[in-house]
Design brief:
Blueprint (H helix, E strand, L loop, with lengths): L4 H11 L6 E7 L8 E6 L4 E6 L4 E6 L1 H10 L4 E7 L3 E7 L5 E7 L1 H12 L12 H5 L14 H18 L6 E7 L5 H13 L3 E8 L2 H13 L5 E5 L13 E8 L2 H11 L4 E7 L20 H22 L2 E8 L8 E8 L4 H18 L4 H8 L8
Parallel strand pairs: 8-9, 8-11, 9-10, 11-12
Antiparallel strand pairs: 1-2, 1-5, 2-3, 3-4, 5-6, 6-7, 12-14, 13-14
Length: 390
């Protein structure tokens, strides 16, 4: 039995008479299909679509007409479509026999969100401010109000700004130069620029680096649209990138595998005061790790993968300590990525020589025990950064 697509469209017509701010497409038809969930957020004149598989998220912008066709095309892939406005939740479900069920509910989250806006702590990115990037992300309305269905993302972005603000408040910056490695679509890059330039009134210069030319062109277009004059983007490789100015801060969010190591190495090489790095896709150690005395750690694939990621991050943290940075490893959720990540926050400090040597020795011990040759360790050795510690 085939789905009556015209009936599905008729329900869409009912739904979009309301001010829909978010759509969640879920309950996939087949376990083998690529995407497990789709989220759509309303922007000013576009709909921002995020398609999630097991490890990544794929994004695109659609017009309203394109969105309708897209949703119709997903009826072969998913069984449930949830639409959220400030007051209502609309649910379209498709049965195994291709029957369509439609329901309208009160958005139970709306009152909770409104209450939270009044009672929760004082956020750095305040509701009511005209923050153009947040409007384009679908997190703020054009009037500067938080979209109810995007409130979690609003909190997550504020959390990232707070992580930076904790370190910035300890310094009296008059100006700051920042490199953002692997900037991608630069959602948080625009927010970081807004934080420094508009909120903190600090003369801020940011360069975003990525390999995708079309993404860089779009980011430069948006920087001009927002009139962010000292924010620019370049097509370049993290490996071997040479900064054209002294670098105070390096940001690296989701730079894949060893790209994170090149970003951290560059920050160390430039003597950057602050480093904020969220690693991802950490395959290097997973392909190396072996342990005669601890074979239990590598016996089970999923456990081996997670242990390898943890080992990678703690090696990076220790190496940063050995290079004179005070390091914290924090839990962090990027608004565009639902899984929890670890964020490395490092600040150039006065680390005693004995501590530096201890941190390096711990890396050597771990590497010897598990047969590891981690990229950041290799970069520091090859470029003679560890000579004074051996």
């Amino acid at each position: 039995m085939e789905l009556n697509i015209e009936e599905f469209k008729s329900y869409l017509n009912i739904v979009f008479k309301d001010e829909i701010s978010k759509i969640v497409v879920s309950n996939k038809v087949s376990k083998t299909q690529k995407f497990k969930r789709v989220e759509v957020v309303k922007k000013t004149d576009k709909y921002f679509v995020s398609e999630y598989d097991e490890k990544q998220v794929f994004n695109k912008n659609l017009s309203f007409e394109q969105l309708i066709e897209y949703l119709c095309s997903q009826t072969n892939m998913f069984k449930q479509f949830d639409f959220f406005s400030m007051e209502n939740q609309f649910v379209i479900k498709i049965s195994k026999k291709q029957k369509i069920f439609f329901n309208r509910l009160k958005n139970q989250n709306a009152n909770v969100v409104l209450k939270s806006l009044k009672t929760e702590k004082n956020y750095i990115l305040k509701e009511g401010q005209k923050i153009a990037p947040l409007v384009d992300m679908g997190i703020f309305t054009a009037e500067g109000k938080v979209v109810a269905s995007a409130y979690d993302k609003y909190k997550q972005i504020n959390k990232f700004v707070e992580i930076i603000d904790d370190y910035v408040r300890e310094n009296d910056f008059k100006s700051i130069n920042i490199i953002d490695f692997g900037c991608g679509k630069s959602y948080l890059t625009f927010i970081v620029y807004y934080y420094f330039s508009i909120i903190k009134k600090i003369d801020c210069h940011i360069v975003g680096i990525d390999l995708k030319r079309d993404v860089i062109e779009e980011c430069n277009r948006l920087a001009k649209k927002y009139n962010y004059q000292n924010l620019s983007f370049e097509v370049a490789d993290i490996n071997g990138y040479e900064a054209k100015f002294p670098v105070d801060m390096v940001i690296s969010l989701h730079a894949c595998d060893t790209a994170t190591d090149f970003a951290i190495f560059n920050a160390i090489k430039w003597n950057a005061k602050m480093i904020f790095s969220v690693p991802c896709c950490q395959h290097e150690i997973n392909s190396q790790i072996s342990a005669k005395n601890f074979s239990i750690l590598t016996r089970y694939g999923v456990a081996k993968e997670r242990i390898s990621a943890i080992y990678t991050d703690i090696i990076r943290c220790n190496l940063l300590e050995s290079m004179g940075y005070k390091v914290q490893l924090l839990e962090f959720i990027d608004f565009a990525h639902t899984p929890k990540n670890l964020l490395i926050r490092a600040k150039l400090s006065n680390i005693p020589l004995a501590v530096k040597k201890q941190m390096l020795q711990e890396v050597k011990n771990l590497s010897a025990e598990f047969n590891l040759n981690q990229k950041l360790f290799d970069l520091l050795k090859t470029n003679n950064f560890l000579n004074d510690l051996d």
